[in-house]
Amino acid sequence: MLIVEDEYIIANDLSIILQDAGYPVIGIANSVAKALALMAQQEPDMVLLDIYLKGKETGIDLAKQLEEINIPFIYISANDNQSVLEAVKATQPSGYIVKPFREKDVLTALEIGRYRHSHSVEQKLREEKALQIAITNALSDTGDWENRLLIITQLLQQHIPFDFLTIRHQRLGTTHNYNYYRIGFEEYQLLSLQTIQQMTNAKVDFQLLPPGKLLVNGSVRYHQEGLGTLCQQDPFIQLLVKTFRFESALMMPFSLVNGEQFIIGFLSRNSESYLARHQALLERLEQPIVLTLERVMAYEEIARLSNKLKQENSYLQEEVKTFVNFEEIIGKSESLLHVFKLVTQVAPTDTTVLVMGESGTGKELIARAIHNQSSRKEKILVKVNCATLPANLIESELFGHEKGSFTGAFEKRIGKFELAQGGTIFLDEIGELPLELQAKLLRVLQEKEIERIGGKASIKTDVRVIAATNRNLEVEVTEGRFRMDLFFRLATFPITLPPLRERPGDIVLLAHYFARKLAQKQRKSFLGFSDMALAELTSYAWPGNIRELENVIEQAIILNNGQTPLVLGRPLEKRLFAPNPTLSQPKSNWVSERPTVSVPRDLSEMKQMQQATEREYILAILNQTNGRIRGSGGAAELLNLKPTTLEYRMEKMGIRKILTVQPPDS
Ligand SMILES: Nc1ncnc2c1ncn2[C@@H]1O[C@H](COP(=O)(O)OP(=O)(O)OP(=O)(O)O)[C@@H](O)[C@H]1O
């Protein structure tokens, strides 16, 4: 027992009464200061307390401190002034003994006080345990964080007073912020950062800083100057304090082993809201809360990773052909070698690259070569085709969405930018991106941050961007279909792929490369091209470029029996330039009486031209089969026609034999 009483005789009487009854007395203090000094040496189980003492401080001042550290006390006083009694009541004493007292009065008050205190301690422990269970349950819930934290806000209000609760979750450089403004007894308004910005008329973007030095080691209470210091350190808290006129705060960090941190801030308009017992309660809750958060975050991380893996897997199934080296990019023309040089220069940097060129010129191949020669090659290369996605889905495809962010968003989905984290994103057909999304993409490129649709916070990205287009983006810009700022941003390093017709030397190389590759795939031998086929290949304009060439060769391989040189499976329809004179003309013993037509001027001429190429084609096949029409390996079989039909067509086209070689079946 500690006796705090400035009248020595009374104090001595009390001491004797207590000791006789078996209560050890640790000391007698005649002022608050002395009482605190004695308590620093030995903590009493209970304090008997007079109201007016030596010095300025009263028993009521000491009572407030005792209440904070949870030491029960009983007043002993003759003072019956109403306002003093009110103040006494507010300190929640365990009893009150009126002077002058009898021994019996003291002992009875002590008995009752001790009982009440131990009972209230037990009650408090029970309540605290229930609070802890309710908080950990709410945290483990599967709902979104706003709702989970709202439940926690309601639970905490019963134990720690506040007018505003702000929770900051810091993770991998991004910060999520949840703000609950108390508007009724059990009513809270969830305020987004934007709403706070509007409410406060904040001109500049306020920052959500990581906790200052003050918060590194556990909870801190702030009143008056302390609150001022906190405000200097933390512009967001400062904004709240100024706007809502808060006078005190209690902040507590919950630090997880993985480096994540949740900081909870209680703010109150009352200047003395936060007592040591509030702080102590938070500290006791720290361990169970941190353990629960670690478990919950680990589960969320696993769910996120498995979702990412699932998306990556299905993506990789579509996109198995990632590995591209220059050896697989065929061509020796000057213009292609220049492209290789540019690729080698830009690949090791993180620069955004814009690959331009007609359709089928190999833009994707070049994008892959850049990725594979960069330091990101071990990471994923994600392709997005901006032309094949419906406009309303591109945003979600690129940036992802939160569950319920729009009709049909049943599940949270990460976007391709997030999927490409650490790697490269290839934005094919960028010219098709709707204007509205061009602005969003520009922001992402500039700020290196994305925001999921319906998401509350931005996510830092580390993604290299390679874009490709077969449109002339400069024309698109002048005609208002493409943003100039985005164009300049993308075209930091432009690479233009030459069309195939501008590098005729590569046609033969590519044709052989594809023929060998495709013949091997179909387990056929490849005996080279017929002269006619080569002439056709090199004199054609290839509007579909390498993709078209690959298709033409594939058809030819399918039709070829593996025992004769390759002829083309179908006539090449449009000749935009004259046959290559360096290649020898087909040696023919079959001739056509009609001249071939090269460029159509109208529909009838087009028809004529088609007939002409068909005729050439039949001639080529006939030369290849040495004039044989019927039987296995004959021209009719190669052309997939009945021999009689072929003969009829030949007659109509004026194809006739001029040499004496007699084909066996004709
Ligand atoms: N130099 C090359 N060597 C070998 N194969 C090539 C070369 N260039 C392109 N290809 C092949 O040609 C096809 C078309 O190439 P790719 O898809 O890269 O063209 P693209 O310019 O991206 O076309 P689009 O604009 O239509 O998307 C692919 O099968 C690719 O492997």
UniProtKB/TrEMBL annotation:
The modification 4-aspartylphosphate is found at D50. It comes from the Bacteria. It comes from Spirosoma aureum. One of its GO terms (biological process) is phosphorelay signal transduction system. Residues 329-558 form the Sigma-54 factor interaction domain. This is Sigma 54-interacting transcriptional regulator. SUPFAM superfamilies: CheY-like (SSF52172), P-loop containing nucleoside triphosphate hydrolases (SSF52540). Pfam families: AAA_lid_14 (PF25601), HTH_8 (PF02954), Response_reg (PF00072), Sigma54_activat (PF00158). GO terms for molecular function: ATP binding; sequence-specific DNA binding. Keywords: ATP-binding, DNA-binding, Nucleotide-binding, Phosphoprotein, Transcription, Transcription regulation. The keyword Zinc does not apply. Residues 1-114 form the Response regulatory domain. The keyword Nucleotide-binding applies.
